[in-house]
Amino acid sequence: MSAPTDSSVAPQGRPFSVLRSPFSGGEAATLHAFILAGGRGERFWPISTFNRPKQFCTLFGGKPLIAQAVDRLAGLVPQTNIRIITSADLVPATRDALPGLPAANVIGEPIGRDTAAAVALACGIVAREDPQGVALILPADPLIADEAAFRDALALAAAQAAREPVIATVGIAPTYPATGYGYIECADESAPGVRRVRRFVEKPDLATAERYLATGAFVWNAGIFVWRADTMAAAFRAHAPQWLPLIENPTDLETLYPTLPKLSVDYAIMEKSDNLVVVRGDFGWDDVGTLPALARQFPADPQGNVAIAPTYALDAAGNIVAAEGDPRATALLGVSGLIVVHTPKATLVCTQDAAQDLKRLVATLPPDLR
Amino acid sequence: MSAPTDSSVAPQGRPFSVLRSPFSGGEAATLHAFILAGGRGERFWPISTFNRPKQFCTLFGGKPLIAQAVDRLAGLVPQTNIRIITSADLVPATRDALPGLPAANVIGEPIGRDTAAAVALACGIVAREDPQGVALILPADPLIADEAAFRDALALAAAQAAREPVIATVGIAPTYPATGYGYIECADESAPGVRRVRRFVEKPDLATAERYLATGAFVWNAGIFVWRADTMAAAFRAHAPQWLPLIENPTDLETLYPTLPKLSVDYAIMEKSDNLVVVRGDFGWDDVGTLPALARQFPADPQGNVAIAPTYALDAAGNIVAAEGDPRATALLGVSGLIVVHTPKATLVCTQDAAQDLKRLVATLPPDLR
Hints:
2 copies of one chain form a homodimer.
Chain A: E1 31-37, H1 65-71, E2 82-87, H2 91-97, E3 106-109, H3 114-129, E4 134-139, E5 143-144, H4 147-163, E6 167-172, E7 183-191, E8 194-201, H5 206-215, E9 218-228, H6 229-239, H7 244-248, H8 253-256, H9 265-268, E10 276-281, E11 285-286, H10 291-295, E12 306-308, E13 311-314, E14 320-323, E15 329-333, E16 338-342, E17 346-351, H11 358-363
Parallel strand pairs in A: 1-2, 1-4, 2-3, 6-10, 12-14, 13-15, 14-16
Antiparallel strand pairs in A: 4-9, 5-11, 6-9, 7-8, 7-9, 8-10, 16-17
Helix pairs in contact in A: 3-6
């Protein structure tokens, strides 16, 4: 993988900086980040709840995931240009979690309309504020081990998107034949480290995923998109004109959001576009979609128990114990394959097999516990 | 079963009252209760701990077991005559749990010497204070459903012990072939509702227990003994003279306790005595020795889950959830046969089969959690 850099560190005399746009006579093209934090995250109940979704959880490294998402852009995107797009009801909690960010940078959507609306909103904001700027669309909640490599990949994608009218994406180098992610098939290289996109593909079955992995040409779609406002506006104009009013008027969300269909930007734009490029990202990405996935980030004891909370185990194997905001000790005796999760209000005890039914369990709970 | 009564309720014109001793010219023979509260109760960890044993737990009906044990003597034993014999370190907590009892009635043993020492101590106190009085020795922590029937049985035993030099016991009518209790074999009736004891027998194996149950002649030894001080002093003199100094001087525990062997009164006295009588007790007795035993006191849901704490279960069967001092909700998903117990400091998750190894688990815990 090539190693581009941001302007603050320019080793090896590389000829371009992401902050230098080919469209602006050599001036710096500013980056604008939009972190999409719309999820509700029942798969992490009870640590995540309806009113305190995953992005606020600190289980994953001390700071809330949303704060980690902001922090890891340091040096690449000016703090004033980092915006969070979230549900209106989560705006106060999001501002609390991000005291360094201007309050106005936390934008509340009046109703959830999936990522197409959020990307159109971002496009409208950048088009109005900084027509030559480049926008980064980022999800709020993956864990990223090598943050410098992550910034390098974004910088490379941003440089490419600044240079030509492409929608760039950073795809994740797959580490196993995952069936839980969409994939992007890469074609030929259009610039060093940048390849054209052949196609976006849906979540595959295992056999297909194994084939994808074997070819070496596929990466995971991580929902990371990088583009100039004019490029994205053109894409909406061509493929999804229903969103154009929002791009033209990105402040009147109360009026416009209810008119929009609930659709992902993948469906609305990406699968229909032919000007996509992809940078392969290999920086220890994990979307920690489930607690067993999270547990893989932590060391296990010789019996395979993973303790993300004080735990004492006897005759117990292959269990996961986690807690947030609750210092209690957990003692396991004679049990195996369990997930035990504590918060101050609730404890979940489930088998790892049953974890996929968590949403069904949460639906049975009284509202104050969900 | 016969239905004797205490003096406050004397139906059916029965000719005697427990409070009327044949040895005192028709005056009332006062009862003195000694509740033995020496256990440490690791089998209920984390609800019971070394410094807060089972008798302080409120899981079993709102009030601490020790307070229930005192309360259920109301009308039978004057409050001033109810004493608790416990470990010296537990005296303050015991006094706190029993604000209605004179502080001096909570007696701390400097070291644990099992029930023989406690019974000798009780014998010495009654001999000194009220030579014609009758003592009741009672364990601190069984649950008793029908407290009036319990008092009736004690009253009948007390009347018999007041009337003649016998050690009376209240044995529990067995409800299943328990292998966890000692048994008492009953012989012929010596008075209405009172039978002579043929022998004390150790905890049997299942086949033996089934045979005991079939004969109808066996009851469980519940550690309840009723006697006049002169009767018990004579028994010690005959079978266990090493305890006589404590009977003669029941105040100098610091000096005398270290000289005594650690022995149960069953071994020291009961198994060697031939002046034992037994009253059959049928009052919903449960020593709640384990959490599964406790759970039998509570209703189960259609899937056999017993919730002694707020619980939500999906695809879960045969589990027990309990908590003390911790209002958290527990959600069970896809699990079966588990025990989940919460306190503010700790949560236990174990299989019901493994519950018997709890002591081994507790031994691995840091001191502040034991």
